[in-house]
Amino acid sequence: MKAITDPDHALDRGLQAIRTQYDVTQDFPPQVIAAAEAAIRRTPTSHADRTALDFRTLDPAQSTDLDQAFLIEEAGADLILRYAIADVAWFVDDGDALDIEAWKRGTSFYLPDGKAPLYPTILSEGAASLLPDGPRPAVIFVVRVAPDGGARLDGVERAIIRSRAKLGYETLKPGDLPPLFDSFARRIRDAELRRGAARVDPPEQEVVALPDGGHVLGFRQRFPAEEGNAAMSLATNLAVAEALLEHRTGLFRVMAEPDAQAVARLRHSAAGLGLAWPREMTLAQFEARLDPADTRAAALMLEIRRAGEGARYTPYHPGVVPWHAAMAGTYAHATAPLRRLADRYVARAALEVANGRPVPGGVSAAFEKLPQIMAKADAREGQIDRAVVDLAEAVMLGGREGERFSAIVTDLDERGARIQLADLAVVARVAAPGAIPGDRIEVRLAAADAARREIRFEPAA
């Protein structure tokens, strides 16, 4: 992580400009706030009492919009995951002011100087968040995981729960996690490897606000407990997706494999980076072996992510098995309803089918409309994230025009060579005729313009 020196407050001005450009606001219209205030006064009437169960949450330490709480138990050779999800649908009615506003936003947006939540904070960080300060309404997914890692949905219920602890990735101490946490994660990971999944997250640039008001730019650190947390979410989403597919309904997350031409380019890139990719090994098998801590592997992982068409949402279509190549399975998003609009509807559908009831017409209709809404929100989120990083890079490099930097070429396309600076978390492009992925080159900073969020490098003479 590299501290950003910003005595002129160019970063603050730039972040405000990004909020204005992309219409990212933390504020809500008065009617939405009024609807939220009315919603938090509702007394749950359709929920079983599960407050005696030992649920806890696991998130970044500073997070307060807590979507999930968990409990893992043994049942013979199987493991039972009780994954409690914030019951957002209890607070939000179809067509009310909260619902209308959520459809406009699609998702929560996160910036270094604060987030723009999907729902007002009195809900998303208060009454609906699974914080350990009192009972909360939740939807509990009961997921049975066999010794081979196969996951199926054993039940879904609305319940009142009480989280016993708010655990943070950065602040975990020995004994904080339940004894079965690691063995559960191993089962899910082993099952992924057997079916050829490639759920490997490449390192991502991020800008982080510091307590003293400053900021740093770096690659996001991934903590060991995140793997286990991701395994619980994955198992739940796979189990929910299979249950919905069996009942011929749902909204699924799908992603195609890179085509043969793209895979051929990736093989050339791997060779250029000095990474051995045996001819008989598939892309998924190879990607599963990559270590994001290795800068060469990280560079290839980023290229792999760009090689395919990207993930998208699709409703159920008769005779079509929705497929997510990176997960190597049928997959849905159900576990983050405070932060993603689509999850609220998927959770509602799962609750109904698991209890032998028909999916409400309004939910089925939403499945047809949500792909477009979520695609727009995903694109906007990506643009905001990129704009923030571009701004931070320009601010950090401001005043260093003319300096030389060592860089590694990560890939090539029609716009030139993509490079990663050797000593800074900066990714850029440069004209580098004859370069191949893996080459180390010297570049000179030609321009750094914070107002335009642009940096420009040239080959060093």
Automatic annotation (TrEMBL):
Listed SMART domains: RNB
Record's signal peptide: none
Short name of one Pfam family: RNB
Residues covered by the RNB domain: 47-356
Protein name: RNB domain-containing ribonuclease
Native species: Novosphingobium tardum
